[in-house]
Every structure is written in structure tokens, then in C-alpha cells.
Design brief:
Layout: H1 3-6, H2 9-19, H3 30-44, E1 53-59, E2 62-68, E3 75-79, H4 93-103, E4 106-110, H5 122-138, E5 142-147, H6 149-161, E6 168-174, H7 185-189, H8 198-209, E7 234-241, H9 245-257, E8 262-271, H10 282-299
Parallel strand pairs: 3-4, 3-5, 5-6, 6-7, 7-8
Antiparallel strand pairs: 1-2, 2-4
Helix pairs in contact: 5-6
Amino acid sequence: MDYDLLIDTETWAFIRRIEGFAARDATAPVAERRRAYDAQCAAFNNGRPEQVEVMDLSADGVPVRVYSAGMPTRTVLFGHGGGYFLGGLDSHDDICAELCVDTGYRVVAVDYRLAPEHPHPAAFDDCWTAAQWALREYDDGLVLAGDSAGGNLVAAVAHHARGRLDGILGQVLIYPDLGGDLNLPSYREHAQAPLLGTDAVRGYRSLRHGGAMPMDDPNAAPLQDADFSGLPPTVLFSADCDPLRDEARAYRDHLRAAGGTVCWVNETGLVHGYLRARNHVPRAEDSFERIAIAIEALGQGLWPYDGDDAD
């Protein structure tokens, strides 16, 4: 794959800056990798818009951070990325604050327990608890959103919520890991993609589960569900230069086959983790705007897509 042709100069500058942080090697100790990730997140943190108010609360025992600006009419439950073992309330703090301002909605960020200390289903259980709490606490409808591992977790909440929880208005999944087959074409085409390769995906899943990923467990892998009916309106964003790309395609196809409302947006020339590039790379900035528009639209019960999404 000739990434020099696919990726523009600004995105390459972002990639090189990310690569400048140590301990991205999968063989490094978890504690070292967490320190490097935290340093990376701090280096890219843009701060919160001044109008945002923040409260750190307990959602029935799960730590959450609640962002608001003005009088929000809807709530977003946000699951952060980080391969199931990195990140927390600070890693995506500015992202959540900007989504709050851009949508006008309240954002509830979930500080779910991390692997390997807390293997599956701990992270899912925390997100499920937080979703129930948010709907009960604010009672104004819930849009689920998350990137990478967080996309997996909130999608699992959407699947599990059917017949159990009312009020989920939609889900916006950003380059999600949905537990798909590692033989999907993008896993071969982008096995050595910048910032995330196929071996890294395999390693993150193994770390989360303490070994092989369980089969037939949609709480771990939404793509393993046998039933895709009754899910809320869904918008998927993928990075084209990412082994996870075709997970979004596969999920889109399952929802379509089940009669669901779904759109897949594949972002040309972008790589996994591009949310952090939104203030440095025009392509990422444009995608972030599309993400915020999708969240806002689903919260209002609108569908601003004509069905002509990615192939």
C-alpha cells in the first residue's frame, strides 16, 4: 500500500508527531504504554471552550465526567478509545468538550475499567451502568458515541438495550473495533497502516480478554450478534487507511439487511485516531464537523443522509 499517495502532508505531520511518543511497541509494559499515551493526549489537548461546565460524578459507582453548555436538550454517552487498556476521563477531555459546544448537548464521558486488570465484561458493564444512569438522571434521550474501543462499547450497549432500555435515539461510531473477522479485506490491505496495524488490533483484543476473543458474545463483539434488528439509527465513520475500515462496512451491511437506518462515511486519506488531528489536519477537521452534525441530527430525530454512503 503506497501511503505516500493516499495520505496528505498535513496528516503525515500528525502521524510523525504521534510516532514521536515512546512505548507504542506492543511488547512494552502496560504501565509504560499508558504513560506514553497519557503524554501524547496531553500534548494534543486543546483545552475546553470557556463556556463549558464540567462535573465529575458517580453513575451508580462508575466515574463519569459531565459536560454542559447552556441548557442542553439531549445527552450524549461517550466511550473513549484506547485499545481497552488506555485512556480515561482526561484522554478525550477536549474532544468531549468540543462535542458539547458543537452539538449543544450534554456529554457524559465514561471512565470504564481498563484491561488487563479488569477483563471483559468489566468495560461493557460500566458503560451499560452509565447508560442506564444517564437516561434516568436526565430523561431527555440518549445518543451513543465513541471512538475505536469506545465505539465497540457503546455499540454493545445499543445491542443490549433492545427490550431493556428505552430512550436511545441513535449511535455514532467512529473508526470502531466491532470484533470483526481479521480476514476482512482492510485487515490485509492495511496490515501495516500508520498508527494502527492488524497485529496491534489482535493484541488489544487479546489483552482485553486475557486470550482469545469469546465467540457469540455481542457484548464483546457487536458484529457477532445474530440479530441486527431494532437497533437505533446509526452513523459510522471509518478512516480509509485503517485495518478497522471494513468493520464499519460489515456493520452497515448487517443493519441494512435487517431493515435498519444506517449510513457509513469512509474518510479518505485519514488514519486511525484522527480525532486527535482535528485541529491540525483539514481532513480531520472536516470529519469532526460531520461527526458533530451526525450526533446533533440523531438527537433531534433527523436523518440528513440520502443513502448514498460509502460503497
